[in-house]
Amino acid sequence: MEAMRAFRDHALDSGVRIEDEYGDERVRLCSFDSAALGRRAECLLVFPKNWHAGYPTPVLYLLHGSDDDPRCWVDKTNLLELAEDTDAILVAPEAGVVGYYTDWSHPDNGGSRPEWERFHLDEVPRRLLGGCALAPEWSVAGISMGGYGALAYAANHPSLFTTAVSLSGLPHITKRFVSAFVCFTLRRQGEPGHAPFGNPRDDSSAWVSRDPFRQAERFRGTALYLAWGDGRKANGDAVFPGSGLVERLVSSSNRSFTRRLDKLGISYTASIGTGTHDWPYWQRELGKAWPFLRDRLSAS
After folding, report:
1. Which of 83, 88, 116, 131 could bond to 297 as cystine, CB 3.0-4.6 Å?
2. Residues 6+ apart with CB under 8 A from 161
């Protein structure tokens, strides 16, 4: 396959290690030494079933949540089944346990300052996909912390990410209690609560510039899909303690964001239903959101 050969040749020349971890010719786990992170980092790629070099290939970034890694998209969802008829390259990069999809303002607990946005939007496409002909406009989707990341990247790069899907994301991180929750998730992992964005009281500009709610005007023209649950457990769901409470916080953040979009006259698609902040709900919502994504992932 000419397109796959071009990918492999460029990636190997760029110092990338390529592994077949899933026994599926479409799925490749790649890793390389990242200058943005100061360590070796991973990215899972899923290629189109009938990929060829005759057209610019659509790209969909898939952003994982906290306490997870890129493998969650294959291990915990039916992504490969959903993507059977998709023309896009699916790019699932690692984002740290609590990386929050930003170039950190302050050092982490190891003394380094990870640059997640640089890793995702510079190093990953350059090192992994530099040998591929890619469509100029991409899509991005994420779950939980990754849902926030999808919106933050779309707001800060509206000419690149023209479609954004957030499942249980936090689109209003400067909202009362939400910023405290973000700091709590960092401290729970042993990280300084102010490290990614600075102190929300003393360095509010960093929070504001990374808050989709505050940057809502930038979503004008973006194909936007937002999903969140009501915090109630659906029949048959096994969920972890506290997931209902977390999803209710997510719901409050999303309601604020959609009210802001309504006030600005910016269109979006919303999916609101029964569910908590856990994989049973996200699997259902990924299936609901997929037709929205698929319509925008067709090769021209």
Report:
1. 88
2. 61, 137, 138, 139, 140, 150, 153, 154, 222
At position 123, the amino acid (one-letter code) is E
Q: What is the pLDDT of residue 218?
A: 98
Q: What is the mean pLDDT of residues 222-251?
A: 91
Go through the domains of the chain in sequence order and give each one's CATH number: 2-294 (3.40.50.1820)
β partners of residue 164: 140, 224
Q: What is the pLDDT of residues 238-297, one digit of tens each?
A: 777 889 999 999 999 999 999 999 999 999 999 999 999 999 999 999 999 999 999 998
CA distances from 240 to 76, 119, 227, 228, 279 (A): 15, 31, 20, 17, 10
Beta bridge partners of 57: 134
Residue type, 64: H
pLDDT tens, position by position, 193-209: 999 999 888 767 789 99
**Distances in whole angstroms, Cα of residue 167 to Cα of each of 2, 145, 187:** 35, 9, 24
Task: Give the C-alpha separation, 16 to 155, whole Å.
Answer: 30
